[in-house]
Amino acid sequence: LKISKKIMAEASSLVGKLETEVEIKASAGQFHHMFAGKPHHVSKASPGNIQSCDLHEGDWGTVGSIVFWNYVHDGEAKVAKERIEAVEPEKNLITFRVIEGDLMKEYKSFLITIQVTPKHGGPGSIVHWHLEYEKISDEVAHPETLLQFCVEVSQEIDEHLLSEEEEVKTTETLETEVEIKASAEKFHHMFAGKPHHVSKASPGNIQGCDLHEGDWGQVGSIVFW
Q1: DSSP H or E stretch at residue 127
Q2: pLDDT tens per residue, range 55-106
Q3: Beta-strand relationship, 107-118 and 125-135
C-alpha cells in the first residue's frame, strides 16, 4: 500500500486544499461504485469509521441528491449532510459538498472529491482524495486528520471488496435439464402446491415433506424434507 499526501494553502490562509493518494487492489469501477452506487454499504466495509449513510433526497449517485452520514472522527461521533455536486462514471469521479453537520462548525465550505484511476501496467487502482475548504478562522486546523480518516476508509473498503470477490469465487452453480411428458403447470404444482405428495411419486428418494411454518407454496414458508 502506498499513500502520498500534499497540502496547498492559498494566499488566504483560510482557504486550503488537501490531497492524498491510496493504492488499492480492487478495480477503479468497484471502488467508485461504493460511493456512487451504494454508499449505504460503506458502513459494512468500515464500521469503526462509518456507522451509516442515508439517502435524504433524490437517488444514489445522482447530482443534486442529498445523503446523510453518521461517522466517527477523532474519537467523536459526528454527522454530515452532503449534496452530490458531480458524478463522472467514465472518470470514476464523484464530488460531495458538505452542507450541514459537524464540519460546518469550523469551515464555511467543504468539498470532497474522490477519483479512482486504474493502475498503469498492472492490476489495482489509485484512489485520489481531494479536500477543498475554507476555514471560519485561523484558529481552525487544516483537516489533516480527516485526510487520514479517508485513507483508513479506503483501505477497509478495499479489503471488503476483495473479500466479496473471494466469496464469489467460492460460489458455484450447477444446472441440468430433464425433458418430461407432463405439463409444466402440473410438475410445478407438485413442488409449489403439494410437495408432501412427492414422496408418493419418488419413495426411494423422498420419504416425507412437512410444513413447519406458513402455507404450501407461499414465500417465507418453511418446509422440512
Answers
A1: strand 125-135
A2: 999 999 999 999 999 999 999 999 999 999 999 999 999 999 999 999 999 9
A3: antiparallel
At position 67, the amino acid (one-letter code) is: V
The whole-model pTM stands at: 0.71
Q: Bridge partners of 77?
A: 72
As a whole number of angstroms, the distance between CA 101 and CA 211 comes to: 52
Three cell numbers at 89?
462514471
Please give the single-letter amino acid code of residue 101.
G
- Alpha-carbon distance values, 7 to 15, 95, 105, 127, 172 (Å): 11, 19, 21, 17, 48
Cβ atoms of 43 and 64 within 8 Å: the answer is no
Distance, in Å, from the CA atom of 84 to the CA atom of 5, rounded to the nearest integer, reads: 24
**Residue 195 has which C-alpha cell?**
410437495
Q: Using CA atoms, how far apart are residues 178 and 187, in angstroms rounded to an integer?
A: 12
Integer angstrom CA distances of residue 135 from 9, 61, 103, 182: 11, 27, 10, 75
Residue with cell 473498503: 157
- pLDDT tens figures, 56-65: 999 999 999 9
